[in-house]
Structure formats: structure tokens, C-alpha cells
Amino acid sequence: MTAPAGRGRPRDRATDLAILRAGLELFIERGVEGASMEQIAKQAGVGKPSIYRRWSNKEELIAAAIETLVVDEVQFASVEAAETQSPSALVEAAIDSAAAAATAPQYRALVARVYGSAVSHPSLLAAYWRRYVVPRRQVAARLLERAQEQGTVAADLDLDVAIDMMAGAVTYRVLQPDPPDVEEMRRYLRAVYRQIGLLPPGGADGDFGGGLK
After folding, report:
1. Which of 99, 112, 108, 91 is nearest to 31 (CA)?
2. What contacts 61, CB < 8 A, 6 or more positions away?
3. What does the alpha-carbon distance between residue 100 and residue 72 come to, in Å, rounded to a whole number?
4. Which of 55, 65, 125, 185 is surrounded by the fewest CB atoms within 10 Å?
5. Is 1 inside a domain boundary?
6. How far apart are alpha carbons 103 and 100 in whole angstroms?
């Protein structure tokens, strides 16, 4: 997803991506304050009107950039897959890409920027939450519901709390002064998912023994 449908003439996908990449790069490098529409246009090699035909403000643009570009790094389960495929198989299939994405310096900087902007630019966090977080929470909730039906997740588990715990655990690790490398993050993710019940006990990587840093 990029720009809202129905605003002007059909969009050029290459231009869309150039604008989104410029917006994301400037946001990570300079924060919301340093990512003006003028600067984004200059870096993308387009005119400001091209941006405003697509997004009404930079908060929506940055949220769209996160939604469009970050999702390419992690193979999130689709709504259809969550309804038809094994929850544990879907989680296992996503672990490698999730570990690689979560340990990339750019992702770490992005998470810090997003949460650091929560007070000063609440509209950015609201757009990020609506466009990026909510759809993934919905898929995660459905995976947990199906795992409950299969008996691998406790029937009385509070799904919202479980999702908060999974997302919060990853964010906590990513923002530590000495963040994990890919292999450590892979083990950590498996440990988190086992605790919830989305993966069976044991496994090739063994238990995550690092403890809280």
C-alpha cells in the first residue's frame, strides 16, 4: 500500500518508491523535524506537488514508507495463510527474516525514531500504529486463536497481552546498548514463541540462555 486510492491520475510505482525511500532515509537520519517535504522531494528527485498528490503530510508519508519498505524485509503471514496454515509452521518460516531485519542497524534506528517521536509527533505514531502495527496484530491474534483451537496455546490466554509481550520483547532487545546479532536474535525469537505456545518445546537452536542483559 502506498497512497490513498482515487487521488488524481494513476501513480508511477517507481516515483512512489523513490519518495518513500527518501522519506524513510531522512526520517532515520534526522527524525521527523529533519524530514521536511521539501527535503524529501529533493532527495527523491521529484517536485513537492508530486508528493502532495500522494500524501497529505510527512507523518502519513513516513508511516507509508515504514509499511511499504519494512514489510519487504520480513515475511509476515498473510490473513489467508493465518486462516489455513499451521501457526507454528508460519512462525517458523518467518523467523530467519525477522531475526535478520530486527538486527539490522537501520531497523534499530527506525524503532528508536518512531518511539522517540511519540510525544513530539503523536500523529506519526498514530499513523504508524494504524497502517503498520494494527494489521500485524490482527494476523497475530488469528494465529494465536488457531493455536488455541489446536491446544498449543492456553485457552485462557489474553491475546492482546500475549501480542504485547511478543512485540515488547523484541523492541526491548533491539534497543539495548549491546543488541543481539542475527543468531542470538533467532534463538531469542524461538524462545519467546515457545513461551507463548506458538512453537513446540525444544528445537534445533536450543533454549535461549542469554538471560536479560
Report:
1. 112
2. 19, 20, 23, 37, 40, 51, 54, 55
3. 12
4. 125
5. no
6. 6
Hey, what's the cell of 101?
531485519
The total number of structural domains in the chain stands at 2
The whole-number pLDDT of residue 10 equals: 54
87-96 long-range Cβ contacts below 8 angstroms, 24+ apart? 87/143, 87/144, 87/146, 87/147, 87/150, 87/152, 87/198, 88/147, 88/152, 88/198, 88/199, 88/200, 90/143, 91/143, 91/193, 91/198, 91/199, 92/199, 95/186, 95/189, 95/190, 95/193, 96/186
Report the chain (213 residues): mean pLDDT per 10 consecutive residues: 46 90 94 92 95 92 85 72 93 92 90 89 87 90 95 96 95 91 96 95 53 36
| Contacts with 14 (C-beta within 8 Å, 6 or more apart), sequence order | none
Same domain, residue pair 19 and 109 = no
Does residue 8 lie in a domain region? no
Please report the pLDDT score of residue 76 as a whole number: 72
* The predicted structure's pLDDT at residue 210: 41
Please report the pLDDT score of residue 1 as a whole number: 41
Which grid coordinates belong to 64?
507509508
List C-alpha distances in Å: 203 to 57, 157, 186: 46, 23, 12
